[in-house]
Amino acid sequence: MSTFPSATIVGYPRIGPDRELKRALESYWAGKSERDQLQSAAARLRLQSYERLSDLGLSTVEAAIPASFSYYDQVLDVTALLGAIPERFRDFDIEPLDLYFALARGHQGAAALEMTKWFNTNYHYLVPEIDAHTPISLTHNAPLDLYREAKEAGITVRPTLVGPVTYLLLAKGIDGYNPLDRLDDVIDVYAEVLHQLYAAGVPWVQLDEPGVTSDNLGITTEELQNVLLHAYRRLTSGKRPSILVTTPYGEAVSAIETLSETDVEAIHVDLVHGTQPQTWGNKVLVAGIVNGRNIWRADLSGALSRLASLPGEVSVASSTSLQHVPYDASRENWESEDLALWTAFADQKVAEIVTLARGLDEGRDAVSAELALADAAHKRRHEAPGVSVKAIREATAAVTQADRERAPYSLRADAQAQRFSLPAIPTTTIGSFPQTPQIRQARALHAKGELNEDQYRARLEDEIRSVIALQEKLGLDVLVHGEPERNDMVQYFAENLEGFTTTKHGWVQSYGSRCTRPSVLWGDVSRSAPITVSWSTFAQSLTDKPVKGMLTGPVTILAWSFVREDLPLGEVADQVGLALREEVGDLESAGIGIIQVDEPALRELLPLRLEDQQEYLEWSIGSFRLATSGVRPDTQIHTHLCYSEFGDVISAIDDLNADVTSLEAARSHMEVLPELAATGFDRGIGPGVYDIHSPQIPTEEQITELLALAAEAVPAQRLWSNPDCGLKTRTYQEVIPSLENLVRATATVRAQLEVSADA
Ligand SMILES: Nc1nc2c(c(=O)[nH]1)N[C@@H](CNc1ccc(C(=O)N[C@@H](CCC(=O)N[C@@H](CCC(=O)N[C@@H](CCC(=O)O)C(=O)O)C(=O)O)C(=O)O)cc1)CN2
Ligand code: MET
Ligand SMILES: [Zn+2]
């Protein structure tokens, strides 16, 4: 076995410091550039990343640098490697890279693979579809290509793949099939890949097994143990490079003990989100001590003490891949010196890891300057203005259970029915309308000072006028203003609340070419002025139909931001909840009768371990209720959740106590409705009747079929008709015919119900 480097990372961002990969991908997809242009842009990006990591101190000779590139998604990469292509894609005569994109984005009527959240992050992977007949055999050893490409540039990288167990745990079995039944076929391919890597002289390979940290994947600890033993005994039996298995995102003690009974050479542990195992045999322990999920400067002194207490051969690493954080904090123009001092993005984290490795090797004194700086940053957090604001602390301390309660639902339902007199199965949308290039451009000009406040506002009001006119023409029942003023549903609120800051270059990949700039929640949160009221009242002034007020909920604001770690999350959530409660109150006072508070990330933040879930649900639901319970009975509160897999939070949907809940449901054919009914849920529900993630326009028949299915599970008085999610990523060309079909289909189902009621 060759030695393992003393410092490494689990993975590095790949979208490019200036989103070069995003631009190259979107240009290629739009037919504006050739495949080889995309491929050379990607190669440039990879080599630049390796050089950067080497400048930051990772070894170029010891396999310290992971080859963690992906064109779209690391799980899809394995699907491509295995050739595990669902039948609907098998007859296309297209190049492998185009087939890869077809799986991600759909192609000529073949629906894309489903996309879902990667563990408890805002990154999405493409769900493999595996059944007894899925072809599984090595297509092309892409990890080997990456190794050779780097080798030519004089750098020994560590090929990195999602491990076989996690791959199958994340896969979807067709018709109840258990994907793990194909474990041996998958291992055959991995073994072949490893053998080829070995033959090419690759010293180390990394297999990521985050699946072992989750209780939500339908496997018992015991079964997992057997599967791991079987997989890694087989994988280590042939000729192969040394193997590092990583276990990021959570608690992995028992899996690590199991892995230590196999012949893998190194095991990674997430020491930030999990606990330290008792034993890891004679393996190299790759200690994930620098947090890959946040952007706060590490407590180097504490980390070094902890590392020094670990017996055996230890390598210093990130807790997870750094793909969840932006590249470089030094590029930001921070609004205070404190923020500059407190923050560390991927590059700063690599430097921290290198520092810790040096401290471990040469002793504390060798890194005393770095330790002192980190200590000073932590000390400063306690004193800095805005970190602890007395009035805000008093307000959250004064919250009572009564602040989280509304009048009984029956009373609300009557008051609302009188106030709004909506038809059966009211039609609505989830909030955003297409973010056109013109809107984005106006925002960019406004940011540069080339459009003043009034000019920018005037453009957005024009947009709202046209969105309202369109909805009236379509015949929708409850309208929205379309959210044109928002760059992002979280960032927009962060820009308008105290206690947050936002970044200019802090892009993080969310899925494919789509990125977000997570906001930074560093201080106590409060609202200094109304945020959305003028937009909502402007929109309402244009129509007699109700226009929904539109807010993002506390849990989602937290989930999609980098949150301070010196206060319990539940308390931070209540601060945000109180700020939103003021906004809800102002919307109500301004005559907005329906207010939607989106919580698409409620499921995402659900802890991976069962034992932690109850506490989470208490504070998360509590903060939503705090935000929404201050209103009159005749004010209708809506919420919106996406990303199916509601199973684990199904009772939480009821506990939110919203009057109307819209849910993603189209791709899963309304499966959620009977589950929800079983919990006793009896309020308004809008199961999505078409999938907005696909560019394909749903037909009237398709929508009618889904809505009729929904009408079997939910009485018409409580059923709503809406798309699965917001329309911001779509074009008007797609949106207009889709909504026309939605309105027609709804009319058809209403008529069917009347006929059967008369009969
Ligand atoms: N935070 C967050 N997480 C989420 C979602 C979400 O909406 N927000 N939705 C779910 C799915 N994830 C998504 C993530 C990103 C996007 C998305 O559309 N991202 C846009 C960027 C959105 C944005 O921040 N736009 C800004 C900045 C846009 C921009 O790139 N501006 C140009 C300049 C303007 C121009 O000339 O076009 C630039 O900076 O170069 C704006 O509109 O103001 C993208 O990648 O393209 C959609 C869904 C789950 N997680
Ligand atoms: C990711 S959930 C999106 C909800 C938001 N109101 C929208 O329509 O875009
Ligand atoms: Zn949504």
Task: Give the second-level CATH assignment, the architecture of the largest domain.
Answer: Alpha-Beta Barrel
Largest sheet: 7 strands, parallel
CATH third-level topology of the largest domain: TIM Barrel
State mean pLDDT (0 to 100 scale). Answer: 96
Q: What is the total tally of β strands?
A: 21
CATH class of the largest domain: Alpha Beta
Structural class: alpha/beta
Broad shape: globular
The percent range for helix content is: 40-55%
Low-confidence runs: none
Ligands = the ligand Nc1nc2c(c(=O)[nH]1)N[C@@H](CNc1ccc(C(=O)N[C@@H](CCC(=O)N[C@@H](CCC(=O)N[C@@H](CCC(=O)O)C(=O)O)C(=O)O)C(=O)O)cc1)CN2, methionine, zinc ion
From the N-terminal CA to the C-terminal CA, the straight-line distance is: 78 Å
Strand arrangement across the biggest beta sheet: 1-5-7-8-9-10-11
Structure annotation, total helices: 26
- Portion of residues in beta strands equals 5-15%
Rg over CA atoms, rounded to whole Å, is 26 Å
As for the number of domains, it is: 2
Characterise this structure.
The active site is at 693 (proton donor). Keywords: Amino-acid biosynthesis, Metal-binding, Methionine biosynthesis, Methyltransferase, Repeat, Transferase, Zinc. InterPro entries: Cbl-indep_Met_Synth_N (IPR013215), Cobalamin-indep_Met_synthase (IPR006276), Met_Synth_C/arc (IPR002629), UROD/MetE-like_sf (IPR038071). This is 5-methyltetrahydropteroyltriglutamate--homocysteine S-methyltransferase. It is a single chain. This protein has 759 residues and is an alpha/beta fold. The protein folds into 2 domains: 20-292 and 311-328, TIM Barrel (Alpha-Beta Barrel); 423-436 and 474-502 and 533-758, TIM Barrel (Alpha-Beta Barrel). Strands 1-5-7-8-9-10-11 form a 7-stranded parallel β-sheet. Strands 16-18-19-20-21 form a 5-stranded parallel β-sheet. A 3-stranded mixed β-sheet has the order 12-15-17. Helix 1 (20-29) packs antiparallel against helix 2 (35-55) and helix 14 (390-397) crosses helix 21. The longest helix is centred in the last third of the chain and has 27 residues, at 732-758. The chain is globular and about 75 Å long. Bound molecules: ligand 39S, methionine and zinc ion (ZN). Ligand 39S binds next to helix 16, strand 13 and strand 14.
